Inverse folding.
């Protein structure tokens, strides 16, 4: 079994004390790290599944305009962390690799900017912007093994309390999805019927 640690928020908490933290994780059998989205000052997930706010998120690296030009995309304009914070983050990733750990970035497309607001399944511009950001991210962090993409996806959670039905599988095909289904070539009524049959069979 491979045990990987997933760090999705509060990257700074790990980065500012990574040697001690990595030692503890390694003692517990961890041999891999998944980290991202790559922003500092991310809102923290608080009890009751709401996010605190108030701090300006900062990208962990400055974008390379040439990458976006190659894809015909606009260069992101998100505020970027200071050089020292960027350097410490790079050191942390390199230290994980030097331990022999697998290192993967979660959501390497995060930070693609406002030009990536369409549905990536059908919107060409959004596809190009997201691809550019992933290439830019992976080029900036050559020490990592790869990236994990999250979505697009259909709801997969059965528990009705999960994030206020954010991705509850039986509450994930509202009427508002009908037009998008048609655009993608799916029969909305057939999808709803299949979902309802599954619900009935489970009960």
């Amino acid at each position: 079994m491979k045990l990987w640690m997933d760090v999705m928020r509060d990257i700074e908490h790990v980065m500012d004390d990574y040697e001690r933290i990595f030692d503890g994780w390694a003692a517990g059998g961890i041999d891999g790290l998944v980290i991202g989205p790559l922003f500092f000052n991310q809102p923290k997930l608080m009890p009751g599944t709401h996010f605190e706010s108030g701090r300006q998120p900062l990208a962990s690296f400055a974008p390379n305009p040439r990458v976006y030009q190659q894809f015909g995309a606009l260069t992101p304009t998100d505020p970027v962390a200071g050089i020292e914070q960027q350097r410490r983050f790079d050191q942390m990733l390199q230290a994980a690799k030097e331990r022999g750990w697998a290192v993967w970035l979660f959501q390497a497309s995060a930070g693609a900017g406002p030009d990536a607001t369409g549905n990536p399944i059908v919107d060409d511009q959004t596809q190009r912007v997201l691809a550019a950001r992933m290439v830019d991210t992976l080029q900036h962090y050559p020490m990592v093994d790869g990236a994990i993409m999250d979505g697009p996806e259909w709801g997969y959670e059965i528990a009705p309390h999960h994030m206020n039905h954010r991705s509850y599988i039986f509450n994930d095909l509202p009427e508002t999805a009908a037009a998008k289904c048609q655009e993608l070539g799916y029969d909305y009524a057939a999808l709803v019927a299949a979902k309802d049959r599954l619900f009935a069979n489970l009960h």
